[in-house]
Amino acid sequence: MKQQPQNRRYFIGSLAAGAAGAIGTQSNRPTTTAGLEPDLVVFNAKVYTVDSRNPKTEAFAVKGDRFIAVGSTSDMKAIAGKSTQMYDAKQMAIVPGFIDSHNHAPGSTLLYEVLVGNPYEVEFVTISSVIEKLRTRAKETPPGIWVEGYFFDDTKVKDKRELDASDLDEVSMDHPVVVRHRGGHTSYYNHKALETAGITKNTPNPPGGTYDRNRAGDLTGRVTDLARNAIDRIGNRRTFTADQREQRDRDGLAFISKQFVRYGLTSVHHEGGNLRALQDVRARGELLHRVSFEVSGNALESMIASGIASGFGDEWIRFGATSEHTVDGSFSERTMGLSKPYPGIQPPYQGNITTTQDDLNAWVERVHRAGIQINCHANGDVAIDMMLTAVERAQKLFPRADARPKITHCTLINDDLIRRMKVLNAVPALFTSYAYYNTDKFVFYGEELMRRSMAFRSLLDAGIQASAGSDFSPGPFAPLMGIQGMVTRTGWDGKTWGANQRVSVDEALQINTLNGAYASFEENIKGSITPRKLADFVVLSDDLHTVDKEKIKDIKIVRTVVGGNTVYQG
Ligand SMILES: [Zn+2]
Q: Which pLDDT belongs to residue 22?
């Protein structure tokens, strides 16, 4: 690491053409020429830059949408001009804008659907509150039309028992009713839904899913992974005109963008969504965060057909990797594919694998050849192995340097998987908030598996650039909650799991900023407070390096700035 003398000005050699190109190729002398001065100088701060050349400083200057200089308060004041806005940070901490590398960004769900759990924080609900909320929706819904609840979390229920089909019968016998787990891999149905789909206690489980049964052999209403398809196909859903759908998508995206910046996120990798609506929201000036857009299905086919590779777009909306191509089930809902049976479950259960190796090989090869960054959802060690096998095969057939295959979740690793990831330069996006939010689920895996799960320490030690992927809806997306969990491995319930995987505050910060930029090939324009990079940063009420580690999540976001513009003020 090259050491930059402390308190020395840290200037750019040459500013890329653009906003402030006139500063040009100058020496390290500050300039105060009229018209060339910074638009903004932030001083008297504790700036954690996540730039190894100059990790901590006091001040920086912004022109247009870029940082142009980083240094001491006196140096930055020296380059300020008459028109420069001066911001006294009063010793508050400032960090680069946070980056979430995996987020479903379900804005219209947040805005329009029945939320039976708290999307953002740990909160326990009662089964009767779930029933009540859905009943209200059922009353205004014509019979036969689905009534759906979102953001359910089976371990955040005060009743301390499983939600079941009979509970949901109380919502309505005339509507198919479903409660979707926030993890996205399990759902709970009422009997009307099960019966309409023709599912009985004698129906065999399909490949890649289960119809859960109780000890007596009766259906409980809980259905996992691919088994849900047969039920979700039946009945009708509320319909909207094309215009209404666009409006809902636009308003949903504008809504969630506000939530992201409220928590300090300035860039988010969007798992699919409505690209047209995203562009409209941007045109309306309501897109507050930057988007790495990840596609599947028809949109992915169109990219391949038209020769659009990852990286196409601009600093606000850019095609990133593919959407997560699903290889196995869920970590939080205990359906991920394990090489050994789940502890304590009878009959022995090893989770759900939702594709074959042959199908996966074919998909990976086709996308890889098209110059598009591969992204697979792989939680369990079996799934990660399958994905790496497919990528190794594709690289052998069609070698491409610096492909950075993205592994969404990459939850349960072992030494062999790490070695192979390193060879492929894979970029894993691990769960972030789970280590705080989901400790009530880790007992299902036990300490032995948790020592190899969400293995930030092992991955960083191997030189792998692990990034942060909240997976919202499944996990809350608050970066500070994520950082607290990465640093402490202790949850809301005070229980600690896999403490061997703890990382330092600085490492957690890098995981949530620069490594996220690396995962989308954008490390040259964002992820650290570095001259020439986009001026995306967050002002924090407390210094996460000195505050009690159990209180990192309670630090307030004072201000979120994207491209030099304040998009949130607390
Ligand atoms: Zn996901």
A: 31
Q: How many CB atoms lie within 10 A of CB 373?
A: 23
Tokens of 263: 């928590």
| Residue of 226, 161, 169 whose CA lies nearest to 194 | 169
3-state secondary structure of 340: coil
Distances (CA, A) of 15 to 65, 192, 534: 12, 64, 12
Distance 454 CA to ligand 1 centre (A): 15
335, exposed or middle or buried, with CB in 10 Å at 0-12, 13-18, 19+?
buried
CA 35 – CA 456 distance, rounded (Å): 46
Q: How far does residue 293's CA lie from ligand 1's centre (Å)?
A: 13
Q: From ligand 1's centre to the CA of 62, what distance in Å?
A: 35
- Structure token digits, residue 264: 């300090």
Q: Of the candidates 489, 262, 441, 407, which has an alpha carbon nearest to the alpha carbon of residue 335?
A: 441
- Ligand 1 centroid to Cα of residue 406, in Å, is 12
Distance 103 CA to ligand 1 centre (A): 6
- So what's the pLDDT on residue 333? 84
Q: Distance from the CA of 115 to the center of ligand 1, in angstroms? A: 18
Report how far ligand 1's centroid is from the alpha carbon of 78 (Å): 47
Ligand 1 mean position, distance from CA 273 (Å): 13
**pTM of the full structure:** 0.90
Q: Give the contacts of 126 (CB within 8 A, at least 6 positions apart).
A: 157, 158, 159
Pairing of strands 537-540, 93-96: antiparallel
Distance 408 CA to ligand 1 centre (A): 7
CA dist., res. 512 & res. 203, Å (int): 45
Token pair, residue 203, equals 């129906």
User: φ and ψ at 174, to 5 degrees?
Assistant: -100, -10
pLDDT digits (tens, 9 = 90+) for 332-383: 888 999 999 999 888 899 999 999 999 999 999 999 999 999 999 999 999 9
Res 26 pLDDT > 60: no
The full length of the chain comes to 570
Residue 404 is encoded by which pair of tokens?
Answer: 């950075």
Rounded to whole angstroms, the Cα distance separating 380 from 142 reads 41
Beta strands in 9-110 (DSSP E): 10-11, 40-43, 46-48, 56-57, 59-63, 66-71, 85-88, 93-96, 98-103
Q: What confidence score (pLDDT) does residue 29 get?
A: 43
Which helix (DSSP H) or strand (DSSP E) does residue 492 occupy? Answer: none
Name the strands in the sheet holding 98-103, side by side, starting at the edge strand that comes first in the sequence.
98-103, 265-271, 290-295, 317-322
Strand, coil or helix: 482: helix
Q: Which of 287, 291, 367 is nearest to 325 (CA)?
A: 367
DSSP code of residue 26: -
